[in-house]
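quick one, 86 residues, struct below
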Amino acid sequence: MWTIIAYVIVGLVGGSIAKSLMGKEKGTWVSTITLGIVGALLGGWLGGLLFNVHYYNIFSIKGVLFSVVGAVLVLAIQGWMAKRKA
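---
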């Protein structure tokens, strides 16, 4: 139960930072949390794959950093796909 709450909190922080880095991104706090959680999963997977880095404590600098990097990647891919459709 606490792990889910931790992912939500880290997701909110990571998603908020990623949205502010990427500029004019809109959305609710639920979409920000979802973005952060997806970003954390993607960033953690990429970090483990490319840099052989694993974090076990979700409330760590690495956890938030991977969440932000993953969320920025998700936002960049989403923006690229939106431009491609237009």
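Helices lie at 2-22, 29-51, 61-85.
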